[in-house]
Structures are given as structure tokens and as C-alpha cells.
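Sanity check

After download, print the first record. It should look like this:
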Amino acid sequence: MEFPILGKNGEHATIACELKGDIKEYRFPAGIFEIGVQMLIEEKVAIVGNQGPNDMSNPTKSPDWKQQTLFLATKGATSYLDNYCFANDMVKTRVGFVLSSYVTVRDFSYQGIDTLRPEDNGGLCGGGIIETKGCARNDCKTDVNNAGSDGKGSHHVTIHNLRLNDYYYGEDKVHVGQAGADNLDCKHTRFREECCFCKPNAVRSSQVGVWVPLTRDSEGSQHITITNVVSMSNQADGINLHGKVQYATVENNYFQDTGDDIYVVWGGNSDPSDITFKDNVAVNPGSLRPGWYGNCVATYGLKSVVFENTECRSPIPVKPVPDPDNPDMFRNSVTMFIFFTSFGGRYADDNSITINGWKFTDLDGQEYTQDAASMNKYESGKMVWSMGKNNKAAPFWLAPPRTQTVNVFVE
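Expected C-alpha cells:
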């Protein structure tokens, strides 16, 4: 396959290709490679960088960039009112990789240059560094698909040992958590008429780390494995599994400094099932839109998911911005796990969410405890805890309005 990728000085990259069984493995050398499109990776392909970038025992440590394969975006979302979800061509609108079935990506780094979240991406249509095939919009209401794909779900996809948005992070991290008074006009949901984080935040990043979108087919996305991914910032979510996702494993990842939720199952009405999140770390969710929206773990409709040994480091919000439609509802990190029925979230009659082990602290490592929590409701200055179906408590919240039964089991 052809790669629309150039070396930093404009030269074409020399990419080694080897057939391993029925998989074409393309191995990139160390260097900086510029990418300005959303590229579709065809079936049965592996994209491999020169050297693994992550030390998972010290995930915030940057690698030796001279030894790294780094994909550097040449354009990004920097204007609030530009068409992003509603554009007619995702190849020219977004930047990143869309993976077909039987595709592996591993051992490389990526740096985006988005500096805000566009207004029409407020409901999240993607913009992932890594996406699987699917619709360009979160509801599939246009005929546009990501990367010019057929929009049908990918299966048997492996995403391993990637480092996201760290190349510029050392320069930009001073801007994390800085909202600006003139950027907080969030009094209603007519966002084109106000400035609710409409101005760039000066953190060069991407919309989403890994995005599995809603698909055109009933089978959806299956057998997705995401492991050892480190991300230093994202304008929207960290990892979001949307639509009918089955047999997915998200394990041993580290994500920090997002503008929205970090680890997400957004099933809508598609009943995703057999999903496991294990040994993941989430740090400082919502910090790129401080006080507005962002949680370590969130769900929006599903059939079954297990969260095992999750670690969340999040400060108690000092000035959380209330939901314009529900002033008693706060969506910025007032608990560790939050379960919404909004954004079309339907929970199957036999739904189950299992929380099996967790660590919940502030950014300095001070643990939050049930004794100091607010039980089943938000109170200023406290984190929310709730009782599971088996009468065990954990740091979770069934977000109001509670229009459905959500079965949470605490182990």
C-alpha cells in the first residue's frame, strides 16, 4: 500500500516491507514523518515503528526521540466553527490512521496539533489518532465514513505500545488547566451563540487517542485489543468504544490531561458486551476544559463491561461548571466511575457493570475514602460514592436523571 507520509524535510520515507504469513508488515525507521490526512490502513497489515516508546513503570518519561518513529500531524483543529463532524471528506479533514480488520499498529509515537475541540464535535464524532472503520458522525446520519472507508466495523485489531502527544507536551503543559474567564460562557447549550471553550487552549494535541466509531453494519467492531498506550493529552476523550463493540480488551494503558472522559464505553442503544478494562491509569480528566466535563471512567449505555484494577488520579473540582440543562448535575470529575443515560445511552435489561479493584487519589497521591465522601449525590468539596447491587460501596455515581436501572457490582 502507499503511504501519504513524508520525512520532515519533504523526502519520501523508505519503508521496509516483509510478508509474515498473510500479514504485510511495514517497518518504519527512526525519524519524524509528516502526515496531513486521515489514512485508511488496508486489511492484514502491520505498521511497526523503530523502537517501543514507553516504559510502563514510568509512563510519563519521554523516550529518546532520535530512536523513535514519530508521526507528526501537519494540520489540526484550530477553529471552533469549522466543519469537523459535518465535513464531506474525512480524509482531508482529520489526521490519523483508520484500521481495517486484521491490522496491528505498534511501537511508534504520534503528535497532533489540534488546539481546541470544534463546536460540531461537542457530541464527539471522533478525530482519533487511531480509529477503526465506521461512520464520520456519531449517529451515522450522513453517508460520510472515516478515511473514505466502507463504514463497516473492523475486527481483530491490535493497538500496542504507542505514545501519543508527548513530543510537544513539555513546551505546552504550562497551559493545562488554564480556562480563561472569557472562555467560560457555558450558560446554555446553544454553543454557537456563546463561548464555551471556543478559544484555543495552546496545548497541541489530538481530539481522541483511540476511537472506535459507530458502524454501518450490525456486527459492529469485534476483538479490539488496546495495550500499553501512553497519552499525555487529548482535546476530547482518551479511549472511547462507541456503538456495538464486542470482545474488547483495554489493558495497561496510561492517559492524562484530557478535555473530556478518559476511558469510555458509549454503547448508545447498541448493547456492547464482553468488554474488559484492566490495569489502566487515568490522570487529571477534563483538564483541557477545566471544570466543564471529564471523568476517569464513564459509560453511556451497554450490556456488559468489567473494570479491573483501575487507577484514577483526579483533583476535587474547585469551580465545576454545572450542566446548563440541569444545574444540580456536574460532569467534571466528581467521582471515579460515572454512569450516564445521556447521549442515547441505553442499558440492556440484563446489563452489568463490574468494578473489581481500584485506586482513587488526588494528583498528589492522597487517597479518597468512603468516610469523607458524599453518598449517592454531589456535595461541594467531596467525591461521590455509591452502593452497588451487592451492597458494597465504591467511588461511582449513577448520574441524574436516573431513568434506567444500571446494575453495578462491586468486587
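If your output differs, re-run the checksum step. Summary of this record's structure: The chain has a mean pLDDT of 95.
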